[in-house]
Each structure stands twice: as structure tokens, then as C-alpha cells.
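Long-time lurker. I teach an intro course on protein structure, and each term I like to show students one example going from raw sequence to a predicted 3D structure in C-alpha cell notation. This year I'd like something fresh instead of my usual example. Would anyone be willing to generate the C-alpha cells for the chain below so I can use it in lecture? Attribution to the forum is fine with me.
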Amino acid sequence: MDIIYPVFCLVMLTFIMAFATGASRLISVRRKQINPKYFVLLSGDTPPDYVQKIGRNFANLLEVPVLFYLVAVLVITLQIDNTLLLNLAWLYVALRLVHSIIHVSYNHVIHRFTVFLLSLITLLAMWIQLFMLVG
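-- Reply from a regular --
Happy to contribute to a lecture. Here you go:
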């Protein structure tokens, strides 16, 4: 099932952001920008912007993409071979990558929201296509 390739790419992006989250936290503590006790319950101080952006992006990659992973599992389990679903999967991953780049770099809310909305619509289209194929 070719859908495993975009799934793998999104998983790799998630791992990259997980490691970046850890690294940004360590850097902020080493630079004495935040008390390490903040990370016990994530309360008290306010971490630097770069730590918040990276951490929030990592959290984002564990929220809505769960629905993407579920579609992929269903496609694999049901042995569906559909070019439209595969193309939508690649589009979804590309949009999530762009979303992450915007989020952790210049973080323009309108740009980020636009890309997020496009990824959400793409994911909805995947679900509709899946339903049409099996329903």
C-alpha cells in the first residue's frame, strides 16, 4: 500500500518536532531563560517564544493528524488502492509540513490558519473519498 509513504513522512516530521521540542527546552534552560522546574508541570514561568512555538507545533502534530493515521490504517486494512486517496494523503502531508515551517519560523497567524484550514479540508476529502469507496 503506497499510502505508507506519506504516513512515514508525517511520522518523521512528528519525530523531528519532538526532538526539536526537547532541544529547545534544554537550550532555554542552559541559557538560563527559564527555570527547569517550569517543565515539571508547564506552569509558573513563561518560556521563550521559540520554545512555545516548537512545543505547540509538536502538540499540533499529535491532534488532528490522528484522523489522517486512522484513514491510512483503514486504507491498508481494507486493501484500498485509490490514486485520489494517495494524492490527497501526499497533499495533506505537504500542507502539514508547510504549517510546521510557518509555525516555528515567522508564525504569521493568517498564513498558518490558511494552511491549517486547507489541510483540514484535504483530510475531510480523504474521509469522504474513503466513505464513497466502502459505503
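Some talking points for your students: Residues 4-134 form a domain with the Four Helix Bundle (Hemerythrin (Met), subunit A) fold (CATH 1.20.120.550). The longest helix spans residues 4-30.
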